[in-house]
Structure formats: structure tokens, C-alpha cells
Amino acid sequence: MYKPSITKGTRDFSPEEMAKRNYIFDTIKKVYRLYGFKQIETPAMENLSTLMGKYGDEGDKLLFKILNSGDFLKSMTTDDISENNSAATATKISDKGLRYDLTVPFARYVVMHRNEITFPFKRYQIQPVWRADRPQRGRYREFFQCDADIVGSDSLLNEVELIQIIDKVFTELDIRVTVKLNNRKILSGIAEIIGEAERITDITVAIDKIDKIGLEKVNEELISKNIPAKAIEKLQPIILLEGSESHKLNVLRSELADSEIGLKGVEEIDLILSKLSLLNLKNNVELDLTLARGLNYYTGAIIEVKAKDVEIGSITGGGRYDNLTGFFGLPDVSGVGISFGADRIYDVLNQLNLFPESLLFGVDVMFVNFGEKEEAHILPILSQLRSKGISAEIYPDAAKMKKQMTYADNNKAHFVAIIGGNEIAENKITLKNMLSGEQEMIALDEVIEIVLKNK
Description:
CATH topology of the largest domain: BirA Bifunctional Protein, domain 2
Number of domains: 3
Structural class: alpha+beta
Number of strands: 16
Largest sheet: 8 strands, mixed
CATH superfamily of the largest domain: Bira Bifunctional Protein, Domain 2
CATH class of the largest domain: Alpha Beta
Shape: elongated
Low-confidence stretches: none
CATH architecture of the largest domain: 2-Layer Sandwich
Radius of gyration: 28 Å
Distance between the termini: 46 Å
Mean pLDDT: 90
Number of helices: 18
């Protein structure tokens, strides 16, 4: 007998889980709209020509490719298949893929719709993405991203605003976080002054892993990439720099004095931090020189958020990507964005028991069904309750009371309403609070008042 299953790295979500997920999505959407961002959506599928080459070699390997429809082998020769090169074969039988993130499709969107867009363009997008990664705890092949981006403006006020959004979202969710900040230009400057300017990618990919594998393993990786020992030695005091943000910036100005690009990065970070100091942020923002984020397209500020009270990876990240739309024929359009990791935020809220209790409830009021006469009396009442924003339902059959109450309990109804002969005669409703067990026979107006008060 066939046993149903789902694909590894994907999940089903129960009604309770969806209530919790929607709480996260709704909170993020509310804050995005508060800051003037507008929502768009892009297709799950993109042309592989749109996706390939934007995430580096490792990212390209994680793209889910979709077989061409029809007889996709018809145009292939025996030699094509016998090359033993799966990547080369894939390009001949597949020209579409599932999106890896929301940023590259957004860049494609901007280029295609540039004549309709008013710049600077502030958009947010909450949709699933797919990565052919090895599934493990906290890492899935299908997951949601919650992105906000601003394109068409070089102003560093955009970075300041995005950090404000991060602070506001996590304050609303009651999660204590640290916002880590760096700048790709600073990393380029560091690579330059240690004499390895051409190896910026190898260096940043390695030091980005310092939180996961530690300094010793990072140094081993740098050696394996043929970075000279002398250069690695020069790198140590810079990436391990501690102290106040002003102290770090002063040290960097001194260390990067001979690097024009490095000094530009320092001044950008200084400006962002000085603007943020004018605001009453609830969470800490700190300069972290080990923050590199492996994606190839960041060119300026880099942002990453860590939860303070739970051991988990980054729960939000982002940065500036000045040249991304250039891939699609529209050069010199600056962009900066962030992405909230909804799945990891969910795990943090669960571990810290921070989801509101109201999310545990299903319908506000469930009416017991005694038969046709009672149904006729209840149906208009249901309409009245719903018109007041109260969710309400009637059990569809005149089943035994025990069965109906079990249904109400299993579906976490907040209240059960009972209308029998006595209630109809007195034009009242017996209302039972399923949490406390208390019940009383009261008028409809009182029912509405009590339920709304407890929502």
C-alpha cells in the first residue's frame, strides 16, 4: 500500500503553525508599510539565464532546475548525454529554475518595469524560495523570505531606515537582538593593505564563517586557498578588533590610511552610526569586521541580525548591491535591502514562548446545534456576530453534545454558545468560556461585549 510522504527539506503547516507564521508575516508587513514600502510578487519560476552567475559557483549548484516541457531529449545527441557532465547536460534539457532568493528576481523586475517605476523604488516581497541544499535542523529546501529593498538612491539614509525597520520588527515581536554592521569596502581595503586585493572573495568567504567554525579553522581555510602566512598574520588584529564603535573606526582609519576604498567604507559606516545615534533604537547596533556574508553582489554596507537569547544563526541579513541590475542591462542603479528569515524567527519565538496567547484560539464562538428550529434562530445571530468582527460557526449536524464539545475543544474555540428551548424563550444565549469553564445565560449584546473584550 502506498504511503504518502513529502519531499525532504519541505514541510506541512498545521492551522496552529499557520496562525503563528501569519503573526510573523503580518508584523513584518505592517512595519514595511509604515515605512512606505509597496508590495510586489514575482513568479516562482525564472529563466535560468536570470538566475545563473549571480550567487557564485556554490549558489549556482543549489539552484533547482525545471525540465523543459515536451520531448526535452529530442534535440540531444548521444554525445551530449555521454559527456558525464551533469551541469552541461542540465543546460540542454532545462532553461527554467525555481528562484533561489527574492533579490535577483527583483533586480530583473526593476529592469523590465523601469519605465513604469518611480525611483527611488521601495518594495517589499514575502514569498517562498527554493535551494537544493542538504536538509538539516533549521535549514530547508523550501522556505519564505521577507524582503524589503530600495533601488535608485545612493543615500545612506536608506541603510539607516532599514536598520530602523529591523529594530521596529523585533521590538514588536519582543525579541532582543544585536544588529551587526560592516562594509564590503572595508573588507576590500583590508585585502588591499595585506597585499591580497585580488583574493577578496576567498578572504571574505572564509572570515564570514568565523562564528561557525572559529578563528583557527578560518585561518586553515585561508591557508588552503593559498593566502600567504604573512598576509593571514596581518589580518588577525583587524578582524578581532574590539572596543567601542568610535575606537574601532579610529583604528581602521589608521590601518587603512593607504587604501582609498577602505577609507570610503569607514566613512560610510561612520555616517550610518552617527545617524542611528540620533534615534531611540531599542536594540544594539555594532560594527563587526568578521561579518562578510558570502554572496558576491554586496558592494557597500552589510547587515546581519543575531538573537541574543537563543543560539541560532542569522535571523535577518542584507546589504547594498550597487551593480546588481547591471547584470540585466541597466547599469548604475544602486540598491540596498534586507531579508527577514521567517523560519528562524519562528523558532526563536517558539523557544522563548513569545507567541501571543490569542494565537492559540481557533474560532471565537462555536454554537451547539440542537436541530432545525435552533438552527433557524442561530443563523441570523451568526451574521450579527460576524458583522462585529467576531469569528463564529455552528456545528453542522445535530450530533450528541459530547461530540460537539469535543469538536469545540479540539479546534480551540474560545467560547461555546448554547441556544435551546429555554434560551429561545428568554431570547438569551448560554455562553461558556472554554478556558475557565465558566458559563452564564446572557443577552446577545452582552455576548458581543464579552467576546470582543477577550479577543
